[in-house]
Design goal:
By secondary structure, the protein is mainly alpha-helical. It has 61 helices and two strands. A two-stranded antiparallel ribbon has the order 1-2. Helix 10 packs antiparallel against helix 11 and helix 13 packs antiparallel against helix 15. The longest helix has about 40 residues.
Length: about 1300
């Protein structure tokens, strides 16, 4: 701004400006990447106008050079050549050319654009894309901070010309200044360096001659000289020092008074100033003139009254303030005056005296001089007051003097330790000045006494004094240099303990600094010659913590001193906890030996046990009520001790064989020691008087703290387990089993509070229970807990036992001869599963171990369960489970039912092992299932379809059951007993339900059972079903199912097994037979006939059976095509029995036989009719269509015609072949009707059989004896699929 526009260096100055203005420092300064910094120089209001001035200056410079370029514009060639005169006066070379002026115009215009462009400052401009007038190339160089000067804009010739002119001007002035009148100037060459002296003299002669110096006046010494005798005379030195110190002290008091007055005046001014002005209510009347409007005159000015509160100045207060300010100015003027000469003299004299004393002592370190220095030190300390400390110059002077005297005469002096401490404690304000020279280590004998005095002085108001004094007690140096005896060290330890208690549990912020030093000394003394103070330390620490007299930081320092942090960090499970503990580690070695660890654990166990029972508070609220603040540190200490103990004992067993008695003894001992250590903290204790209330370990409000101790106990058991699990045999009791037994004995009392149990169960549940191997003793404890302990204990134990790998525990069960213990364990496991499966808390638990255990039912050796045990389990199931468990679809219900089924023997392969009492257990299972289903049916809690489905499932289980017996009869009885239990469902159900179950049973038999498999069910149906109707249908279905299997075995055995298996009840035989007739159970009746024939093989009995069959034939009419084939068995048996009777040649008997045969023929003819003949419509031939099949009618017509042909007259039978046929009218009609069937479309498919039968009947070689042959021929072709007809084929 100040440089002229025509100055040749002006472009370079602008270049330097833009190098700074457009500088881009980069993002590390919080700016955009391409942002410039220049705008920030002009953000303040004072500099904001400078940018406008700079722009205006650029415009002026551009205008100047533009005008200059026009003024010096070169002539054009048209103007002609220059004249000689013009050439003589040509422009000099050093003048700026018009071209340079034009370049400068362009440059300054570009600079104006640069200065105005805001986008350069933000860094969001792409420079190569700028217009030409921005001179992007030069702008890029500027922003890249290139320092190459713009020499193309500088007139170098002009600069050189100005240099030459300046040099010539200087030489001219220099020569003229040395030219003087006279001959000398003509003779001296002032440009010659050899004449320099003459030039100087010549110049000096131009000035006035110098004046002579002032005369010396003798002056008085401002500061008295220090008398050497006073340096060795203590009294004289004291008087001298006191005189000077009194002057300095008086000066400090004066300054303090002046300062107090100044503060008082200022306070008064501040109090008075608000009263200077006040608001007063005023009233003003304004006259508002009116000019009128529309030619109407105004009636006068309007009077407006305004009321307001106006500012009012109190003149009295103003005068008071003026007076106060005047007084303040006077005080300020007085304060700014230099101190009096007497004050300065006293300070210098005292400083000289101290300096002389110190110098003399350094030359002659004699006691006399030392005593003078000490007395001078305490004298100066005595003169220190509040006024001397408030006045900075005096404070600085006193501090310097005391520092010098203290360093030389007091510090390190044995005899001055106690007086110096006494002085400091007497006057606390001297502590900052005097404490640096307090060195108690210089007096080893008084070290403990001095420390006790400092401790006794400890309080809230003087904590800073105590802290400064404590920093002077170099405890390590005292211990290692003086080797104090044990008694002194014990006194010091007790003094430190007293100090720690004095600081109190609720530590004030002011006391924190000395407290930390006390903790440091506490730890240092503990480590010195360890374990001299270990027992005292432990006793003091525990006693004070029991009353909450110590801060937790004291525990932290103590544990760090003992080296307890390293092991704790190694054992810590959480990363944060481990890192925190690792931070506490020290580089020192472990202090406690193994024996000391054992003794410590024993001492702590006894101490806390006695403490727990020592007072009513601890008995009622437990230890955590007072020990909660220390739990984290107590936990760490106990963890360290337990881990050290376990590690040492485990290491000592390295050479012991696995599972030896020594290993077991050590494990049991360790578990006992660890449990005793935690007993006072987490277990219920019983007072000596048994009638009193038990002492519970903690209140519910202390649960968060108590859980930490329980967690530590669980972790300790986990460490014990990990250390010994590889040293034991699988069958031996490990740490987890011992822990669980201990839990059962100590934590399962009936009235145990739930908040305690919840904490125990939560922490114990984290142990690796999968690795535990329970034994019978533990299982017995579990059952005791189930009977008399809180529900949560039972659930916890159950959850734990479900996690066990029972396949491994019961591995001996697959041996040929399992030991009795294995039998008991598998029985306990089944009991346990049934006990737990009803607990929803275990079932609904995430990843429920109970469900996992129940899912292993197929892989466990249930064949070892005896019938008595199984019956007890079924009894428990009946009394504790709802009947709906049979229908429940929940995983637990399904699995427990499957477990009971598998343990009974259903569907389980014993893998070569005998399944004990399988039949009896299965029978008990079936009985219980039927009982549950019956209850559900009676209560209406099961649908009919579900009931039928469950019955069929039960029958499916029975049919695939494989009895362990080898005898066929025994196996039959076993299965029959199971079916008997299952069929009891029909007896227990209501009439309608039983009817539905009967239908379902018959359907199941037809779809599921075949061959010999039906025999047990047939026997069971005859023995168990109370309803003869149900019995009749069931036996019929069984007989039908027997012949449904197309196997050589059933064909070879024929009706023999059926006859042997069917047992018609004697008491209800007649009712049974009638039901069979009404229900169409023709096969059952046929079996009954065979049984009657086998029971008594006489003609009379056979005649009775024949008459019974004839009677039955008259009564029955098959209701469907399914039953029609059964008639063939009866026909065949009637023919067979009639032929046997005809062999008797008894006329009367023959008549009876003929009647029976004619009755049979008549019945066959009736069955062969197309329509039913019963009823009125049937009598006139309009009956409904017969339900029987066409093939049956073919057989019936054939057999009817055959009988008519073989009985030509009412009293004659053709019993011999070859005799001539004598056809009756009925016989001829029957043959014609038979022949006509062949031409009927309805019977077209049976033409061959009809023709064959017609030929057979008409053949004279066939008699009544060939009736069975005809029946067999017809059945072979018409009923090949009906296997129960195989006996007559």
């Amino acid at each position: 701004l100040a440089t002229p526009e025509d100055h040749p260096l002006l472009p370079l100055i602008w270049q330097k400006f833009f190098l700074l203005y457009l500088h881009r420092p980069g993002p590390q300064y919080g700016l955009p990447i391409d942002g410039c910094i220049g705008k920030r120089f002009f953000q303040s209001p004072a500099h904001l106008s400078l940018l406008n001035d700079l722009k205006q200056r650029l415009i002026e410079a551009a205008d100047f050079h533009h005008a200059a370029s026009k003024a010096l514009r070169p002539k054009s060639p048209e103007e002609g050549s220059e004249s000689a005169a013009e050439k003589g006066c040509r422009k000099p070379d050093y003048l700026t050319s018009p071209e340079l002026h034009q370049e400068l115009v362009r440059l300054f215009n570009v600079c104006i654009l640069w200065l105005d462009e805001e986008s350069f400052q933000k860094g969001d401009t792409y420079i190569p894309s700028l217009p030409k007038q921005y001179d992007a190339h030069r702008l890029a160089k500027i922003m890249q901070n290139q320092q190459d000067l713009w020499m193309e804009f500088v007139n170098v010739e002009r600069i050189q010309h100005e240099f030459e002119e300046a040099i010539n001007f200087w030489l001219q002035v220099r020569v003229e200044s040395h030219v003087a009148p006279g001959t000398l100037s003509a003779q001296i060459d002032f440009t010659d360096p050899l004449w320099a002296k003459e030039r100087i003299i010549s110049s000096l002669q131009k000035y006035d001659a110098p004046q002579p110096s002032l005369p010396l006046q003798p002056m008085k010494v401002p500061v008295p000289v220090v008398n050497p005798s006073s340096l060795v005379n203590q009294n004289e030195a004291k008087e001298l020092v006191r005189a000077n110190l009194s002057v300095l002290q008086h000066h400090a008091k004066t300054a303090a008074i002046r300062e107090s007055q100044h503060v008082a005046f200022n306070s008064e001014i501040l109090d008075t100033l608000p009263k200077l002005y006040s608001n007063r209510e005023e009233q003003v009347v304004l006259h508002l003139e009116c000019r009128g409007s529309s030619g109407k005159p105004c009636q006068g000015a309007a009077l407006v009254t305004i009321q307001f509160e106006g500012k009012y100045k109190n003149e009295a207060i103003a005068q008071q303030l003026h007076a106060l300010k005047k007084e303040v100015k006077l005080l300020q003027a007085e304060a700014t005056k230099p101190p009096s000469l007497g004050v300065v003299e006293a300070a210098v004299h005292l400083e000289n005296f101290i300096t002389a004393l110190i110098n003399l002592y350094k030359l002659q370190p004699v006691p006399g001089i030392h005593r003078v220095g000490v007395s001078l030190f305490f004298a100066m300390a005595g003169f220190v007051s509040d006024e001397t400390q408030r006045h900075p110059p005096t404070r600085q002077f006193f501090s310097s003097c005391i520092e010098v005297l203290g360093q030389v005469f007091v510090a390190g002096t044995k005899s001055e330790c106690r007086p110096l401490l006494r002085t400091i404690l007497k006057n606390r304000r001297l502590c900052t000045l005097l404490s640096p020279y307090f060195t108690p280590v210089a007096s080893p004998e008084e070290f403990v006494d001095l420390y006790e005095q400092v401790v006794s002085f400890l309080g809230d108001e003087n904590s800073d004094v105590v802290f400064m004094l404590l920093t002077k007690f170099d405890l390590p140096q005292w211990l290692h240099t003086s080797k104090p005896p044990l008694s002194d060290r014990t006194r010091l330890l007790e003094a430190i303990h007293l100090a720690l208690k004095t600081c109190r549990f609720e530590l004030e912020e002011d006391v924190s600094m000395p407290y930390n030093l006390f903790c440091k000394h506490w730890a240092c003394l503990l480590r010195y010659q360890f374990p001299d103070h270990y027992s005292t330390f432990l006793r003091l620490l525990m006693q004070s913590s029991s009353d909450q007299l110590l801060r937790p930081d004291c525990w932290k320092a103590s544990l760090k001193a003992l080296g307890c942090s390293r092991t704790a960090a190694r054992r810590g499970s959480g990363k944060e906890e481990a890192s925190e503990k690792a931070a506490l580690q020290t580089s020192t070695e472990t202090l406690l030996s193994t024996e000391q660890v054992v003794e410590t654990i024993e001492w702590l166990s006894n101490y806390f046990f006695k403490l727990r029972l020592s007072s009513r508070d601890f008995q009622t609220f437990g230890l955590f009520s007072k020990w909660a603040p220390y739990i984290g540190h107590v936990k760490r200490f106990m963890e360290y001790l337990v881990n050290r103990l376990i590690d040492s004992e485990a290491s000592s067993l390295a050479q012991e064989p696995v599972g030896s008695d020594g290993v077991l003894a050590v494990l049991q001992s360790l578990h006992s020691v660890v449990s005793q250590l935690f007993t006072p903290w987490i277990l219920v204790l019983q007072q000596e008087e048994s009638s009193k209330q038990p002492c519970y370990p903690w209140l519910e409000s202390d649960t968060p703290v108590a859980s930490q101790m329980v967690q530590l106990y669980a972790d300790s058991i986990g460490v014990l387990h990990e250390s010994f699990k590889d040293k034991l045999l699988p069958s031996q009791q490990g740490a987890l089993s011992l822990h669980l037994m201990h839990y059962c004995r100590t934590c399962t009392a009936p009235r145990m509070p739930e908040h305690i149990l919840y904490t125990l169960h939560t922490e114990y549940g984290r142990l690796p229970w999968k690795e535990m191997r329970p034994d019978q003793q533990l299982m017995e404890e579990f059952f005791k807990v189930e009977r008399g302990s809180p529900k949560s204990c039972f659930l916890f134990l159950g959850s734990v036992l479900c996690e066990v790998n029972w396949v491994s525990v019961l591995s001996n069960a697959w041996h040929p001869d399992p030991p009795p213990e294995t039998h008991n364990m598998i029985m306990c496991l089944l009991y346990m599963a049934v006990l737990l499966a009803k607990e929803q808390q275990l079932v609904t638990k995430e990843e429920s171990p109970l469900l996992n255990l129940l899912g292993q039912t197929s892989s466990l050796p249930w064949q070892l369960i005896g019938i008595l045990s199984y019956q007890n389990i079924i009894s428990y199931l009946n009394s504790h489970y709802p009947p709906s468990i049979i229908l429940a679809k929940e995983p637990a219900a399904e699995l427990i039912v499957r477990l009971l089924k598998a343990s009974a023997g259903f569907g389980a392969s014993s893998n070569g092992h005998v399944h004990l009492d399988a039949t009896l257990k299965c029978r008990a299972y079936v009985r219980q299932t039927v009982h549950f289903l019956s209850i559900l049916e009676q209560n209406g809690k099961i649908s009919l379809s579900d009931l039928e489905q469950e019955m069929c499932k039960l029958l499916d289980d029975i049919i695939i059951f494989n009895p362990p017996d080898t005898d066929v009869q025994a196996r039959h009885l076993a299965l029959s007993s199971l079916f008997t239990e299952a069929l009891m469902m029909l007896n227990n159900a209501s009439v309608s339900t039983a009817e539905s179950l009967r239908i379902a049973l018959r359907g199941w038999i037809g779809a599921t059972v075949h061959g010999l498999g039906v025999m047990p069910l047939l026997t069971a149906a005859c023995q168990s079903l109370a309803s003869v109707r149900h019995m009749a249908e069931t036996t019929e279905a069984c007989v039908t199912a027997y012949f449904n299997e197309d196997s050589p075995l059933s064909q070879g055995l024929g009706w023999g097994p059926i006859v042997a298996a069917l047992q018609v009840p004697e008491l209800t035989a007649e009712d049974f037979l009638q039901e069979c007739l009404s229900l169409g159970s023709y096969l059952t009746l046929y079996v009954f006939t065979l049984q009657r024939l086998n029971a008594e093989q006489t003609l009379a009995n056979e005649m009775k059976v024949l008459l019974t069959l004839s009677k039955w034939l008259e009564e029955v009419y098959p209701s469907s095509a399914q039953d029609e084939a059964k008639m063939f068995l009866w026909w065949h048996k009637v023919l067979q029995l009639c032929l046997l009777q005809t062999e008797q040649d008894d006329a009367i008997l023959m008549e009876a036989i003929i009647r029976i045969l004619m009755s049979l023929q008549g019945r066959q003819a009736l069955l062969a009719e197309e329509r039913l003949t019963s009823g009125i419509l049937g009598a006139i031939g309009l009956g409904r269509r017969s339900p029987l099949s066409n093939r049956f009618r073919v057989v019936a017509r054939c057999m009817s015609a055959f009988l008519l042909v073989q009985i030509p007259m009412e009293n004659q039978i053709r019993l011999r072949p070859g005799t001539e046929l004598q056809l009756s009218a009925k016989a001829q009609q029957a043959l014609q009707a038979l022949d006509s069937l062949a031409s009927s479309k309805r019977y077209a498919e049976y033409q061959e059989q009809i023709s064959q039968a017609s030929s057979f009947i008409k053949d004279a070689q066939h008699c009544l004896h060939h009736g069975a042959d005809l029946l067999a021929v017809l059945l072979n072709t018409l009923y090949p699929e009906v296997h129960y007809l195989d006996a007559i084929r």
